[in-house]
């Protein structure tokens, strides 16, 4: 092994060690939605501020997040590069190696076809002919930070109350935070039980943004 190859593999191993933490993967998922202070990231991830700060420093040293001072706050967001692609690839590998992850995602979805989603490419085609409705099931805070054009925001915890208001003449495509997020899976399950045609986007808002597609901000 030559020196250059050894250096590259060493960097890869160090990156793998940094990602080898569920807490850090969760922090990356939330950081991918937009810039947030450590206190908010800690709250969303169920961590203490001190613990979240330590994990964020590891992620920063590995160039996975960037920190920007805004007034008295330091805001963390996802760094540049194909980070969302890496997270998506890790998820697909885990699903390939452990097919039982399907039951972990949603025990109520018993048919394999129920988990079949829609790709970004297919979604773009369906949006062009206006044959689908986009449903963003993330919290309003994240929706306002950035969402897909034309999407309506109904957080999954309040979806059942909004079912009578949903149009039933088109298929509804639910999306959320990305490959580790199960909000859209739960939303699709709720809608299908009421006879609503629904699928989930295989990707999420970070993947849409990383692909260079138009992003809308505000409520």
TrEMBL record:
Keyword annotations of the record: Transferase
PANTHER family given in the database record: FAD-DEPENDENT OXIDOREDUCTASE, PYRIDINE NUCLEOTIDE-DISULPHIDE OXIDOREDUCTASE
UniProt keyword Acetylation present: no
Cross-referenced SMART domains: HTH_ARSR, RHOD
InterPro entries on file: ArsR-like_HTH (IPR011991), GlpE_sulfurtransferase (IPR050229), HTH_ArsR_DNA-bd_dom (IPR001845), Rhodanese-like_dom (IPR001763), Rhodanese-like_dom_sf (IPR036873), Thiosulphate_STrfase_CS (IPR001307), WH-like_DNA-bd_sf (IPR036388), WH_DNA-bd_sf (IPR036390)
Name of the protein this chain belongs to: Sulfurtransferase
Source superkingdom: Bacteria
Family annotation (SUPFAM superfamilies): Rhodanese/Cell cycle control phosphatase, Winged helix' DNA-binding domain
């Amino acid at each position: 092994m030559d020196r250059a190859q050894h250096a590259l593999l060493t960097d890869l191993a160090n990156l793998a060690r940094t990602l080898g933490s569920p807490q850090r993967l969760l922090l990356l998922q939330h950081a991918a939605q937009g810039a947030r202070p450590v206190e908010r990231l800690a709250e969303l991830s169920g961590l203490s501020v001190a613990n979240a700060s330590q994990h964020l420093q590891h992620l920063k040293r590995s160039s996975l997040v960037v920190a920007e001072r805004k007034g008295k706050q330091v805001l963390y967001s996802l760094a540049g590069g194909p980070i969302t692609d890496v997270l998506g690839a890790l998820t697909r590998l885990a699903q390939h190696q452990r097919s039982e992850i399907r039951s972990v995602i949603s025990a109520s979805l018993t048919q394999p076809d129920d988990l079949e989603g829609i790709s970004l490419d297919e979604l773009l085609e369906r949006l062009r002919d206006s044959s689908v409705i986009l449903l963003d099931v993330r919290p309003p805070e994240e929706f306002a930070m950035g969402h897909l054009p034309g999407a309506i925001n109904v957080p999954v915890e309040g979806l059942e109350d909004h079912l009578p208001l949903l149009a039933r003449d088109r298929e509804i495509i639910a999306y959320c935070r990305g490959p580790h997020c199960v909000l859209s899976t739960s939303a699709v399950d709720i809608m299908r039980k009421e006879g609503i045609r629904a699928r989930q986007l295989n990707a999420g808002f970070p993947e849409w943004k990383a692909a260079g597609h138009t992003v809308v901000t505000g409520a």
